Amino acid sequence: PSLALTLARARTRYPYPCDAASPPRTLGPSPSAPPEVLIPDGRTRARNSPPALRPAAPAPAAMAAARPSSPPPADRPLLEKMLLRKPQRVLAAEADEGELVRRFGLMDLLAVGVGGTLGTGVFVLSCVIAKDYAGPASFISWLLAGAATLLAAVGYAELAARFPNAGGNYAYTYVAMGEVFAVLTGWCLVLEYAVGTAAVARAWGDKMNNWLADDIGLDLPGPLQPGRLINPAAAALQLACCGVMLLGAEATQRVANVWTLLKVTLVLFIIVTGATAATGPPSEPFMPSGAGGVMSGAMAACYGYIGWDEICCMAGEAKDPHRTLPRAINGTIIICAGFYAIAAIVLAFMLPSSELDDEAGFSAGFDAVGLEWAGTIVSVGELATLPVVVLLGCIAQPRIQYAIALDGLLPAAFRAVDADGNLVHGILISGAVMTLVALLAPFNVLDGICSAGVLVAFQLTNCSLVLVRVDEAARAGADSARPRWLLLRFCVASLAATVALDRATKGAPAAPCLIVAAALFLASLFFGRGISAHCRLPDPATKAYYVGYRAPGVPWVQLLSLYCNWYLLAQLDASMLLAFVLYAFLALAFYLAVGVRASAGNTVGWRLSEDAPGADLKDLLLADAVDEEAKAADWPGPYSPPKNLDRLE
Predict the structure, then answer these.
(1) What count of other Cβ atoms lies within 10 Å of the Cβ of residue 556?
(2) How far is Cα 532 from Cα 282, in angstroms, rounded to an integer?
């Protein structure tokens, strides 16, 4: 009877069978029953009454009447289905009861982040930025880019700590913005990990063919000669990485850790050997192009920090995720920024920036100072360590597919997990697709569209953190509808302002474009001020619902990041942007034709069963009905107990 009473009372606040598709109808206790709390031994009692005076269980008719009379999910309008948001407690239940094994510690996550991020910035970009932009001051460009990346990363760190689930950005967007935005984010992540990984494999295959033909002098057969459309070496690397993954998650992580260690060792070799070859302080001006060159170099250096967000995809398998994920994300950026800055300083002491080779990078730099043996080690080492980026991309992609399939938006084969917690079917399917892309598609065809997908995913994730904070303030009584419209207006105004500014620098009449950009910027500041007001708790004395890791500067850091990402998107080639728009249109068409009908939230709801793992209704309702009077002393996790039952969602 006590369980029936708790369920009946909870259903006055949560639609049945699970609030997957409709908001709560009643925020307070049932008027037909006195308020009660769940006490530690599992019984219920009336609030502020002796334990012996427990209210009787309601009749079955009362329980039926407590259920809302909302239409079933299938009868809801299409727009309402598309904007369905996944309840946060469902995501929390999936994180606690998921089929993936939490096996990765802090060092494993750091290996994923550093292995996927560190490399290109040292091997090639250091010379590009020093020669074309900042000169000896290129280390300042790297530090500025690292600081900007860290500001974006702290937002990811908070979302990963709040929602330690497989899926990363996809899961955050589903909770904060709705299903259609989550689908778009998911397909952007497919571009970043599946297509982007295949592009890296293709770049490695091209480098390998050029090295064998030019440096070694081998007479390669026709299909392996540089410049051919088909690249078997890239396909072989992609197949090898998928084969490693089929050995299991733990074996794959051990291989990735060793590979990452080799990459870090190579970077340390470059720094130490370069320092011994230094000829003294640079004789050229510290900033040949002034502060503007340093800032342009910082913009170019941002590319060297791409890859750290793969940590978020591993959140469903992270040990103690509320602590390890923020440390791994922030630690990755700090470690990579330190390596990049030190390598840039060493390069400035080795050679004048005008003598650097912006294609061969450090390898040509060592040749120029008479250390040909070091240049050979760097060339071979780059070829030997670049595959770790491919392997880490192969690790991330099945986790994205798993999270999407768990919500019914991809076929069930993608969420199949074997007895050891490995996503064998997802690995085979994604591996076959990535191998074909690496075999047939040139790198310059894939690079632009992948960059567009990464930037759009960043935009949606920035918006997600802002809206999560808005929802948190709404728990304490703040408005949650108006800031969503303000954020939409900010996005439109910032996009238009960025386009106007970009046109002014590319041949359009400067004065009108700058006036329009300034007006739109002021309008976006007005919208941002309104958003900021709705991100704060209405009562400063009210304790936040989430008391774990919190990003500083929300929402202003995220709004600034929106501006930066719009600007970077505007720099992409028009054909690449058009290709991305077509890709997004096809993803939306697939969702409308198939996904919305199979969506778990819009059909059966998120429930725990043998064929649809998710969140059990009874456990969710009981967890949400716990009062702070019963468990305030030993409340688990990073969430503080609710202030009172009337404010529960």
Answers:
(1) 16
(2) 46
Q: Give me the amino acid identity at 611.
A: D
Nearest CA to 126 out of 315, 304, 319 is that of 304
Dist. CA 187–CA 589, nearest whole Å: 12
The three state secondary structure string of 425-478 is HHHHHHHHHHHHHHHHCCHHHHHHHHHHHHHHHHHHHHHHHHHHHHHHHHHCCC
Q: What is the pLDDT of residues 361-386, one digit of tens each?
A: 788 888 888 888 998 898 888 889 88
Distance CA 465, CA 462 (A): 5
The β-bridge partners of 75 are none
User: What tokens does 592 get?
Assistant: 């409308």
Closest listed residue to residue 239, CA positions, set 430, 437, 423, 435: 435
Q: 3-class DSSP state for residue 38?
A: strand
Report the SS3 class of residue 374. Answer: helix
Question: Average pLDDT in the 406-432 region?
Answer: 88
CB atoms within 10 A of CB 522: 11
- Which tokens go with 549? 């890791």
Instruction: Quote the CA–CA distance of 447 and 483 in Å, as a whole number.
Output: 35
pLDDT tens-place string over residues 542-589: 666 677 888 988 999 999 999 988 988 888 888 888 999 999 999 999
Strand partners, 46: 36
Tokens 């510290």, located at residue: 286
What are the CA-CA distances from residue 455 to residues 112, 448, 569 (Å)?
20, 11, 7
Contact 366, 374 (CB under 8 A): yes
Residue 571 phi, psi (nearest 5): -80, -10
Cα radius of gyration rounded to whole Å, the chain:
27
Q: Which tokens is 162 given? A: 């709040």
Q: CA–CA distance from 63 to each of 379, 421, 607 (Å)?
A: 72, 39, 20
Q: Does residue 297 have a pLDDT over 50?
A: yes
> pLDDT (tens digit, 9 = 90+) per residue, 456-476?
998 999 999 999 999 888 877
Alpha helices in 177-231 (DSSP H): 179-190, 196-210
Residue 92: which pLDDT band, with cuts at 50, 70 and 90? confident
Burial of 609: CB neighbours in 10 Å, binned 0-12, 13-18, 19+:
exposed
User: Who's near 225: CB < 8 A, 6+ residues apart?
Assistant: 209, 213
What separation in angstroms does the CA of 25 have from each of 33, 179, 384?
A: 17, 21, 59
Shortest CA distance to 262 belongs to which of 389, 363, 142? 389
Q: What is the pLDDT of residue 606?
A: 65
Going by the DSSP 8-state scheme, the letter that residue 536 receives in this structure is S
